[in-house]
Design brief:
The chain is mainly α. It is built from twelve helices and no strands. Helix 4 runs antiparallel to helix 10. The longest helix is centred in the N-terminal third of the chain and has 32 residues.
């Protein structure tokens, strides 16, 4: 316990020292040039732009594989099933008003508990792969035109559960865990603002895609996007559980880009030293 306390104190001191050094460097550059270039130059450092790009790409990918587009597809599936008599209206209402909200609530709570013990990369990969497989299977069943009510509902709930406990929670958690403190507020605000502005145009664009290819193809697009997003996180996202903010910043200062190659780069760095 004393060792953990000492480590935390040392990390805080290191962070404060680094912040003071960065402020001093920015002030010197602004004073010498007379412009604000020195202030913007801090955003071009690897430990700043690398995590920013990772979070920004992940956030934008949520426009395709997130809840918003998925629920549009589910609504079309249910309306189609109701028209041909495959769905019961009362079952549809129960699903949207009770079952789905209950699953979301339970897995939000579960995610808060899971974050205490499970590594972040495992959470992201299991969330993306399982929800992606669920979306692909839903599209396949709709394409085969053999809509089994219980199977479709089960797969929809599987997507909701895994997407909630992983991608939904981690999109918020990443900002606090890998963005450096000097841009966390500005960077997080920019990412959220960009996401919601682009989201305004998603229904109009994908409604034309839906008309052209059908709801089953749109479900396949969502599923494949989830799997690609999982691959992106596997390659780019560092593991933050059990690591201090100083250790995370030091990782991004390394020359490697991909997380799986970190040990090789560390060995080369140690050899050169």
């Amino acid at each position: 316990m004393l060792h953990v306390s000492f480590q935390a104190e040392r990390d805080v001191e290191e962070l404060l020292k680094r912040l003071e050094d960065e402020k001093r460097a920015v002030a010197n550059e602004m004073g010498s040039s007379g412009t604000y270039w020195g202030k913007w130059k801090q955003y071009l450092k690897p430990h700043v732009y690398k995590p920013f790009i990772i979070i920004h790409i992940f956030s934008l990918m949520q426009l395709v594989c997130g809840f918003f587009l998925f629920e549009l597809c589910v609504r079309e599936i249910m309306l189609g099933g109701e028209r041909d008599g495959s769905w019961d209206l009362n079952l549809v209402l129960i699903f949207y008003t009770k079952i789905k909200l209950t699953v979301k609530f339970v897995f939000f709570i579960a995610s808060c508990v899971i974050l205490l013990w499970v590594e972040r990369r495992i959470i992201c990969l299991s969330s993306g792969v399982c929800s992606g497989i669920a979306a692909v299977l839903i599209g396949t069943i709709v394409y085969m035109q053999k809509i089994h009510t219980s199977l479709i509902i089960g797969l929809i709930l599987l997507y909701v559960a895994f997407n909630t406990y992983g991608f939904v929670m981690m999109s918020q958690t990443m900002i606090g865990e890998i963005l450096p403190s000097n841009i966390r507020c500005v960077g997080g605000a920019y990412i959220f603002t960009t996401f919601h502005i682009i989201r305004l145009f998603v229904p109009e664009y994908f409604s034309s895609v839906f008309t052209a290819v059908g709801v089953h193809s749109l479900m396949w697009i969502i599923g494949v996007s989830l799997l690609l997003c999982s691959l992106f996180l596997y390659l780019m996202l560092p593991e933050t559980k059990g690591r201090s903010l100083v250790q995370i910043e030091e990782y991004f200062l390394q020359p490697n880009v991909l997380w799986p190659t970190r040990k090789k780069c560390q060995n080369i760095r140690n050899t050169n030293v």
